[in-house]
Amino acid sequence: MLKTNWMKRAVIALLPLITLLTLACQKSPYPGYEKQNSGVFYKLLAIGEEEKKAQVGDYITADIAYRNMSDSSFFNGRRRFQLSATHFSGSIDECFAMLSEGDSASFIISADDFFLKTLETQKPRFLINQTTLKVDIRLVEVQKEDEYQREKEAFLTWIEDFGDYEKVILTQFIEQKKISAKPTASGLFLVTATPGKGPSVALGDTVIVDFEGKFFNGKFFDSTKKRNEPFSFVYGQKWQVIDGLEEAIGLMRQGQKALVILPSNLAFGKDGSSTGIIPPFTSVVFEVELLNVIKGVPPSSKTGDAKK
Description:
Keywords: Isomerase, Rotamase, Signal
Shape: globular
Radius of gyration: 21 Å
CATH class of the largest domain: Alpha Beta
InterPro entries: PPIase_dom_sf (IPR046357), PPIase_FKBP_dom (IPR001179)
Largest sheet: 6 strands, antiparallel
Protein name: Peptidyl-prolyl cis-trans isomerase
Domain PPIase FKBP-type: 204-294
CATH topology of the largest domain: Chitinase A, domain 3
Distance between the termini: 34 Å
Helix content: 25-40%
Number of domains: 2
Strand order of the largest sheet: 1-2-5-6-3-4
GO molecular function: peptidyl-prolyl cis-trans isomerase activity
């Protein structure tokens, strides 16, 4: 193991030289990126300490950021999902399969292929004039399916006990705010402040929302309004939003404003947020406004479960 770690550190130290040599040979149009046979451009940022390479069928946890070619980010978050087989050359699944646990890399992929083939929806208007996009990935964890299932079973058993305290806090908040709405089957509360008169949301639609995320004490942890940057994503597809927000938005109509209360299992779970701002097992509140619903093409069955 010491030898392996030493070799990895040596490779990291040589990365700038390797990159220069690669550029000299391949003449990539994107400085620092190496072109793969599939057409994906790839830049290694860091090498992890583990040799666990992501394979099709593995459950992976990754920090993912999508950026346009001007480096403006339109999504940044941590997601866990089961890695799918590559359905076409140059897909984003291929990018994940290139990495081992702990690796970080930046990729440049076709924007049209990502939205039209992977997500099976229209490309967002803010990317309409761009043929490529950047995807930054840090592969946090790789788990075989049996490992994932064992951890899930252990977690569900443990949270039955731990969840009692969170239930007390959640109940007190509901009573304090005099909320009469009943929770959904999953446990979220949705309280409409302003009804919507536009279309409802369906799988494959591109939705544009403003939201403000708060703790129960009223302290903000995120706000698109403060950034003056509404959030756009494809409804029903993986790597988009936390489960609770996806469910809530699916219950809304264009123009609707609502208060959404999420227990931790629908928000940031046992690990908390990847930034460390939101602690584990923390219920949160979102004020959500569904600004626009752009009708898309419903995903076919081959995309599998979109709420991973």
